[in-house]
Amino acid sequence: MAMIYNSIPYFPTQVSFFEEVAMELIEARYGMKAETAVMKLVCKIYKENGYYMVWNEEQCTLFTNKVGREIAKEEMQGIVETLMEKGFFDKETYKEHGILTSVEIQRVWLEATKRRKRDLESLPYMLVKTEESDKGGKDGKVDKETDGMQNPQNCMQDADNFTENADNSEQNKTEQNKANENRELPPLTPPPGEDVGVWRKYSFIEFPGYAYNKNTHNLECLLLALDGLHINDPNDTKAILKLSDYGRLGNEVWKIIHATKWSIVNSKGKYLIGALNKARTQG
Fold first, then answer.
1. FRET partner for 270 with CA separation of 20 to 30 A, picked from 61, 124, 127, 222?
2. 131, 179 Cβ separation under 8 angstroms
3. What's the whole-model pTM score?
4. From residue 7, how far is each of 50, 52, 101, 230, 258 by CA, in Å?
5. Where are the beta strands (DSSP E) in 110-260?
6. Averaged pLDDT, groups of 10, the chain, 283 residues long
7. Is 121 helix (H, G, I), strand (E, B) or coil?
């Protein structure tokens, strides 16, 4: 059978794929049959539209029937929702368009099809910005911050207007200058020896290329620290990453993380944003 133009015949898979949090969670909830279902789902995405697929009640019924009678439609929907909950699929894209995709899936597809003639500006549901789309204007989704977040209770520092402060014009200009220095897509997979699970968890964030320079940044360590502090609010995470310049060495984020007695802080994400804002103001 002829392959659809947008499809790719194969895709890379990490050897630790089944040890990632999302996969271990669905196995614990639904058994090993869930892992098989996920692999078939990912294969279907790459085989048909290349980097996304429509997911609704009808598609769930048809797909479940192909997977086999040992898995129920309700279980399959539960598996998909768990994958979105853990960041395997982009939850916002699904809510808005009924589409299953992710930054990682799109990066794999972009790399696999880079020799094809593609009009990236016309592609729907794109989460990844590329050099090609930057030249022709912005198309598709980019990371969005909310205009403001509620103040935390029992926080040790004032945390008003965190995201608004993190997104001021001066910060944007700095980030744009750094982005111009390195417009390449980040690696499809983390470097050898790094925690694959943490990269998968934060796959909804598009990191600037310069943040992967280990001479100036320790992005992975910062992500592991945020994960260890259970800072799970995407808006808090994005604001912290911006304020810390994505884990730049010498940034106040390292001192704050190590000096704070976190056991007495309730809203850890908002506290850390407040502390970073205060340090930047005083600096």
1. 127
2. no
3. 0.47
4. 4, 10, 14, 37, 47
5. none
6. 65 84 91 91 91 94 86 93 94 94 91 81 82 46 39 40 48 52 43 57 84 84 88 92 92 90 90 92 77
7. helix
